[in-house]
Amino acid sequence: VHLQTQQQGKLTIGQMVVKIYRGDGIRGFYNGISASLLRQLTYSTTRFGMYETIKKQFPGDSTTIPFYQKALIAGVSGACGGWVGTPGDMVNVRMQNDMKLAPEKRRNYKHAIDGVIRVYREEGITKLFNGATMATARAILMTIGQLSFYDQIKQIAIASGYMKDNLTTHFFSSFLAVCILPYFFMNSVGSWLLIRQLSSRIEKF
C-alpha cells in the first residue's frame, strides 16, 4: 500500500522500509493488520464459500461443469466477496496511510472494528463502501482467474490419466492457476487501481 500510494513514486522498497521504521518503528510494519484480517475474513470466505456452494447446485460433479459456467459462478462469487470486503479494504488503506498525515489529522483507529464503527458513526454507512465498484470489479476478475482456472486445470490433469485427485494435483493446479498471465494482470492492476482510488486525496479520504 505504501509503495502504491506514494505521491511521487520515487522510493524503492528498501527506502520505504527504512522510512517506515524511522517514522513508526517495528509497529509501523503492522499498521492495518487487523483490517487486512477483517478484509480476508469477509472477502475470501464469501467468494470461496459461494463458489463451492453454487457449484454444488449444478447436476453431476465439477468435472461435468463446462468452463464458462465455472467462470460465471466465480464472477458472481467474486462480486459478492468484493462488495462485502470493501469496508475492510477501506479501513486498511486508511490505517496504513495514517503515518503520511500530520499528527493532528491522523484518525488513529485502534483496530479494524474500531475503524468500521467510527466511520459508520462519523461519516455514515455509505462511506464504508467507498471504492466498492472498483473492489467488486477487481474481485470478479481475480476470482475468475483463480478459482475457475484452478478447477479447469485440475479437471484436465486428472482426465489425462497422469495425475490423481490428491494433494499433489491440488498444489499443481493451484500453482498453475496463479501463474496464468490473466490472474497476475487482474490481481496486480486491480489492486493498484483500487488502492489508488481509496487513497486519492488522503487527507480528505
TrEMBL record:
InterPro entries: MCP_dom_sf, MCP_transmembrane, Mito_Metabolite_Transporter. Pfam families: Mito_carr (PF00153). It is found in: Membrane. It comes from the Eukaryota. GO terms for cellular component: membrane. The chain crosses the membrane at residues 128-150, 170-195. The keyword Ligase does not apply. Keywords: Membrane, Repeat, Transmembrane, Transmembrane helix, Transport. The keyword Membrane applies. Solcar repeats lie at residues 1-57, 69-156. It is a multi-pass membrane protein. Belongs to the mitochondrial carrier (TC 2.A.29) family. This is Mitochondrial dicarboxylate carrier. It comes from Toxocara canis. The gene is Slc25a10.
